[in-house]
Amino acid sequence: MFVRNVVLIILATLLSVAKTNEELPNVIIGDPNNASSDVIGPAISEAEFEAALANENLVTYQPEDNSALTSQDTFFQGDIQIKSKDQLIEILQNKEGYGQSSAISNPSLKWPNAQIPYFISSSFSTAERAVIARAMAEYHQQTCITFIPRTTHTNYIHILKGRGCSSMIGRVGGAQTVSLGSGCVNYGTVLHELMHATGFWHEQSRFDRDNYVTINWSNVIKGMAYNFNKKTHSVTQDLGLPYDYSSVMHYAQYAFARDRAVPTIYPKQHGAQIYGSKKGFSMLDKKGLNLLYQCSGTTKPKPSSCEDTNNFCSDWASKGQCQSNPAYMHVHCKKSCNKCGTTVYPKPVNPKPTACVDKNQYCADWAKKGYCISNAAYMKPSCPKSCKACDNTVVSTNCVDTNAFCPDWATKGQCNSNPAYMHKSCKKSCSKC
């Protein structure tokens, strides 16, 4: 009798597992992006951030592209990377476990100190880097979250051109990709995927969504209804914020639509509009990010005139970069270089020789591609060996660039086309010492 009962239990378990596997939707399991073969590019420089913030053309409305939300072979909910089949089962069964948690309910998914280390692929064009820089800068301006170049960090995101637009939810441990493939490098989509990486699910996954929207189940593609599953309150929570039709994390109205002319999501509130992820941060998006990461306010205060704008300033200053690279350091590392309230450069001194080493394993490759000139603001302090810009090189105070954009302008031929300004203000980059 005992043996018979054991056999029955085993058979029941096997049937249950088979049934579960049979019912699993056809979503991508694991990370299909081949990050190991990707060539890493240089981190986004301060000059790129500044230029991106000044270019409002980067913040443009993009019509919602639902092509990824009509395929039977796609990411969960269209853009969420699932690590394993077990995690998918946990999500579908709405179990309160690690696999389907958000950073709101599971603090381990938050990034410590609101800092997200990143690599960025060299495959992005200058124009694409500008869009990514603008999206990152929006986080820097509106929240206390900062994206910092990955050096020796164990946990980090790798931004690359992979399969479609996708990300994991929060900090999962180790390297995790944020894919910005074909059609994904636009302002709203980059904000959206990075917000997944900070720890947020889609807005319409909220436990209370049925109070605010109606799902048109009859128009949802067959086999894709699971993408509209709700979470429990304990899994996603809501930070005490109201439902947000305008969230950058909200599906568009035609997501997973069988008939692309008929919405799958209707707002219940009179006059409400659902834009999808293309409009940029809503006020509640910014508030949610700041609440989650315990930022001091809803917007990040503007830095005072005496602030370092790069996390590595104090390290670079200790290695003599205030003297050897004053054009960048005296502008972006005023505090560490003791340049508060003055713009007068010190007399040249011979700094004590220090080890001339690169801080990134890809420095030599970047140098060969000309990044020492085109992205000098990052490369010279981070890759001094490969750029031949070591600390013991004495730079005359008369031979400096007085603008952080000089190296970039020089590579674009401004030394010849605009000599009146460039030969005076960009002597070093124009070789006019």
Automatic annotation (TrEMBL):
Peptidase M12A domain location, by residue? Answer: 102-296
Q: Does the keyword Signal apply?
A: yes
**Cofactor binding, note field:** Binds 1 zinc ion per subunit.
Supply the alphabetized keyword list. Disulfide bond, Glycoprotein, Hydrolase, Metal-binding, Metalloprotease, Protease, Signal, Zinc, Zymogen
Q: Which residues form the active site?
A: 193
Q: Which CDD domains match?
A: ZnMc_astacin_like
EC no. given is: 3.4.24.-
Cofactors: Zn(2+)
Which cysteine residues pair off into disulfide bonds?
306-340, 356-390, 399-433
Residues bound to Zn(2+) are 192, 196, 202
Q: Name one GO biological process term.
A: proteolysis
Which SUPFAM superfamilies does the protein's record reference?
Metalloproteases ('zincins'), catalytic domain
Annotated signal sequence is 1-20
SMART domains in the record: ShKT (SM00254), ZnMc (SM00235)
> What domain of life is recorded for the organism?
Eukaryota
**Domain ShKT intervals:** 306-340, 356-390, 399-433
Q: Which GO terms describe its molecular function?
A: metalloendopeptidase activity; zinc ion binding
Question: What exactly does this protein do?
Answer: Metalloprotease.
Identification of the protein by name: Metalloendopeptidase
Organism listed in the record: Meganyctiphanes norvegica
